[in-house]
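Narrative of activities, Objective 1.

The group set out to show that a structural description can be obtained from nothing but a protein's sequence at a throughput compatible with the screening campaign. Below is one input-output pair from the validation batch, recorded exactly as produced.
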Amino acid sequence: MVISSRTPEGRPNRCPVCGSAITIEPSEPAGDAPCPHCGHLLWFTWDDTGDIIVIKPTCAILRSEDLDTLTDRASEKPGVQLVLDLGDVQYLSSTALGKLINLKKKVMGVGGRLRIENPHSDLLEVFRITRFDQVFDIGR
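Output recorded for this entry:
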């Protein structure tokens, strides 16, 4: 299942936050669309193949409050193999970095694994300076 607020056409799917069935309609200009049930902005894609969940934020700035939702939702599935694709993200606040640690702890707490993929070069530098490159499994 892939959910994105920036899909070219509307199609039925489920909100990855509340699980409600939704149809995302195209908008002009393209932008974030709120879930009609929980109101959460769908600012990322969520692809659950069963064995692996790939979450790809589609914003340049990843806010810490957005990571709260991911932390709660992603840690529900025992043994989850979570991939966080940060290819579009150029900036993380220090609070968001702390939330990534919480996400890792929760995923590991249910016997899962967290991998960060495609970090922007600016984020790689932040991970290097903070030594988070030694904490996280990072794929370049």
